[in-house]
From TrEMBL:
Pfam families: DUF6598 (PF20241). PANTHER family: DUF6598 DOMAIN-CONTAINING PROTEIN, OS07G0486400 PROTEIN. Residues 149-376 form the DUF6598 domain. Residues 39-67 are annotated as: Disordered. This is DUF6598 domain-containing protein. The lineage of its organism: Eukaryota, Viridiplantae, Streptophyta, Embryophyta, Tracheophyta. It comes from the Eukaryota.
Amino acid sequence: MQFSRLLGRPDVSTALHHLSRHSRALICFMASAPPPLARRVSPPMATPNPPVRRLPRCPHGYQNMPISTRVKGDRLDKPIQDDRAAQRPRHPVYPLRGLPRSRHRDGSIYRGTERWKERFHLSDRRETRLEPMSLSDPSRTIIHGPRTMLQIFSIELAKIHVEGLVELYGYIAVRDALDPLLNYVINFSRDDPIIVEQGSLIKMGGPKRGMELVDTSIVEYDVRIKTGKQEKDDVQLIDGVTILDDKDTEDCHVFIARISGECGIIDMTVSRLNFAVEATIEVLISEVYSNFYLCVGCFTSGLREETQLFDGVIGKPQNLKRSVVAVRIDTNLDLKLKVGSESFISAEHLCSFIANEYGYVSQEIKTGPALFSVKVTWSTMPPSVDAVMRKVDHSASG
């Protein structure tokens, strides 16, 4: 479907014609050098109930791994914070342009009759109805193969117009053709902001389910800096809607999608993955022998970019929040568990799984301070949200 047909309004099409050479292309592929890496916030204190979330500290890096578990090294030569910046891969930067009349703060996103607003249900503020693992059971599955999917590896506060630490809140969400309701990638309330500074990685709590990149998807965002007692006094960082299109992204090509706002820049490291499936990662810590620092990251589809899944101090048995990533079929999903103290990693435990269309795999990992169980559930994306809803209703009635 040509996006110009989707817009339908001549004034909107005219305003957007400069965004790409192609009629469908609404991403501006204007490459520029990545910004220099800024310093990071100090590690969080190991308090039982910290008032705000702090920053991730996992170093980035990748090594080819066999389909097994390995333990690497006894101790890193440098503190975790010093190691990360030097190992982060560098990727081309593609600025994303916001669509006209798509701002939340002035309410323009909810006004007008543009077709893209109707197609993606911009006035509907509900979260996506689809759960992960919807087609993971081979005995009852709807026959549907791998799809073109979007993978977001990380989100960085690349630039702000103030110095030092700030309190950040708001959301970034994806709406795709499968179910155009909000699939949050980050979502922080004003009452529970994160503390960040320029160059900080923003902890991703999503997506809730896999993200399709078939035809056109949109990224919706409203992120602000908390500055005063009332919301009206807060500073707008980014606000609007932008487009991601399967025709103007390349398979397994990692790039930085840059969103510029009034008072700063957010960089999303992303890639399109063809013939991909959804992987839901669950980590159970069943036994804890002593308090320890844990960092869990993953690599998908042979790419060098790491997605951080967890970063914090563990003091008791628990289930970590499940994570959803996209993986190309028949390629590796590589998990890395780093165990140690606040400043140093004492061991890395690496395990790999080959992506399948459905079913699950699991593996137990025993370390000095704890016993882990890792489970990865594979699922293709359904042909439509209605097909899944009918399946759920049929199961409930049966």
